[in-house]
Specification:
The complex is a heterodimer. Chain A is of the alpha+beta class. Chain A contains seven helices and 18 strands. Chain A has an eight-stranded antiparallel beta sheet with strand order 1-2-6-7-10-15-16-17. Chain A has a three-stranded antiparallel beta sheet with strand order 3-5-4. Chain A has a three-stranded antiparallel beta sheet with strand order 8-9-18, with no helix packed on it. The longest helix of chain A is centred in the first third of the chain and has 18 residues. Chain A starts with a strand and ends with a strand. By secondary structure, chain B is an alpha+beta fold. Chain B is 26% helix and 19% strand. Chain B contains three helices and six strands. In chain B, helix 1 packs across helix 2. The longest helix of chain B is centred in the first third of the chain and has 24 residues. Chain B is elongated and about 70 Å long. The N and C termini of chain B lie far apart (53 Å).
Chain lengths: 319, 149
């Protein structure tokens, strides 16, 4: 006789960290969703660029000086610091000041899309020598320090890191499976609602209409970065977006407009998705070194799968 | 683990293979191997049934390498038992949307049972290998979306 197993998949969605959030728990408890939202709000309170009281802004307010931070912030900063050399500098959390000068100096909903930031000629350029000092953390004093002339921006990696932490936390609370989506940075773990795994639709804004893909995995992370969202114009009319090249300190240029990465964690996927824009030439090697896979989309709508693409499936519109 | 402790009349070579298999396949593989051994003429099929019901039977390649039965320490060429295939299992996923208020955390919770997508477990694996590479299976219904940010 066939047996039937009924699984409860409870989810909630809300706005936080400047983006759309979705949390799903398999065979969990509604209180798990409460807990998850509280954790996300706490993460936003700690790591937002737009809250003067956040730990991140406390560090930004005192460049060159050690500032006390929580252990969670130390953990996140260590992940961000490690990502720098791992990506040959294509990922740099110290571009916060460049984002401010480009015009992204407030929650994106409030950015003037028609003329924000300094004139184009004032963007980028070489950093003064002292700025090449590293971001530092000191566990013994639970403090962090940024070089003079820089500002931290942990936006993307904070979302991925938070998603990873929450999945682990939800499983520790007793849920059989969990999926956390923070604005496209998705972490999954535990038992999935389908035997094949958690299925995450990849939204291709620039790809051929009607063609869709999904990432299907039991554990790990997915992140999508795009230059098609969070765009605005500078005072000279030039189009700017939030994905900065740490070397030029300006918005990344090139044919690539979307990058989705499937990796061992959402934080890693987030970093690699940024590298796809900042260092296209070195991206594939970085991807393969991480055992990750990616879908890259150009402005013309062409898509390319690179790296380990076992988790990527074509869903609709493919011959 | 067999009933009553040590397996009966395992010859040294088979014992060595079994030990190696236990080391490589772990507890689940051990259980499956034990399920195929005869002890006093009784096949311990129950253990295997339990493993199969967990949805993770031993991979086919490993299974094929196992002796199908042991009589007086020899491995007959023709299998003497047939393990029945695991019963098909259907998984029904009931998706609920829960409204979770922001802080303070003691906000109200309402729950809506809005959709009931179905997800069936894969068909029981055939003993013979697939004749040709099959196209990748369709993706399960997405539960969320990785939109660009």
């Amino acid at each position: 006789m066939p047996s039937v197993e009924v699984l409860d998949l409870a989810g909630c969605s809300f706005r936080a960290m400047g983006t759309d959030v979705e949390v799903l728990v398999l065979e969990g408890d509604d209180e798990d969703l409460h807990w998850a939202r509280a954790q996300i709000e706490r993460a936003e309170a700690r790591w937002s660029r737009f809250r003067p009281s956040s730990e991140l802004e406390q560090v930004n307010a005192q460049p060159g000086r050690w500032t006390s931070v929580s252990s969670d912030t130390l953990d996140l900063l260590e992940v961000a610091i490690a990502a720098g050399p791992q990506t040959a500098g294509a990922f740099d959390p110290l571009v916060g000041g460049d984002l401010v000068r480009a015009g992204y100096d407030r929650s994106f909903d409030a950015v003037d899309r028609r003329g924000a930031g300094v004139p184009t000629a004032a963007l980028g350029g070489h950093r003064p020598p002292e700025v090449h000092l590293p971001l530092e953390v000191d566990r013994s004093t639970a403090s962090a320090r940024i070089p003079v002339g820089t500002r931290l921006d942990l936006g993307g990696i904070a979302k991925g890191w938070t998603a990873d932490l929450l999945v682990g936390g939800l499983l520790a609370r007793g849920a059989q499976g969990a999926c956390v989506n923070l604005g496209g940075d998705v972490a999954v773990g535990g038992r999935a609602p389908h035997p094949d795994g958690w299925s995450i639709e990849i939204e291709h804004e620039a790809a051929a209409p009607g063609r869709t893909r999904a990432a299907v995995l039991h554990q790990g992370g997915v992140a999508t970065s795009t230059t098609l969202r969070r765009t605005w114009r500078g005072p000279d009319g030039d189009v700017r977006h939030h994905l900065l090249d740490p070397r030029t300190r300006r918005s990344c240029e090139g044919a690539l407009v979307e990058a989705t990465v499937v990796a061992r964690s959402a934080a890693e996927a987030e970093v690699l998705a940024k590298v796809a824009f900042a260092d296209p030439a070195g991206f594939v090697a970085r991807l393969q070194a991480s055992g990750a896979g990616a879908v890259l989309t150009t402005g013309a709508g062409a898509t390319t799968e690179v790296g380990d693409v076992r988790h990527l499936r074509r869903v609709h519109g493919w011959a | 683990m067999t009933e009553g402790g040590q397996p009966a009349r395992l010859d040294p070579a088979l014992a060595e293979r079994a030990a190696a298999r236990r080391a490589s396949a772990g507890k689940r593989g051990h259980a499956a191997a034990a399920s195929r051994l005869f002890v006093g003429g009784v096949a311990l099929a129950g253990t295997f049934q339990m493993v199969a019901a967990m949805g993770e039977p031993v991979p086919a390649a490993e299974e094929a390498a196992l002796p199908t039965a042991v009589v007086n320490g020899t491995v007959p060429v023709v299998p003497t038992t047939v393990t029945p295939p695991p019963a098909p299992r259907t998984i029904v996923v009931v998706r609920r949307h829960v409204v979770v208020a922001g802080s303070p955390a003691a906000g109200s919770v309402t729950s809506t049972r809005s959709a009931a997508p179905l997800a069936s477990s894969p068909a029981p694996r055939a003993s013979a290998p697939a004749p040709a590479p099959a196209p990748p299976p369709p993706a399960p219904a997405p539960v969320t979306k990785s939109q660009g940010s």
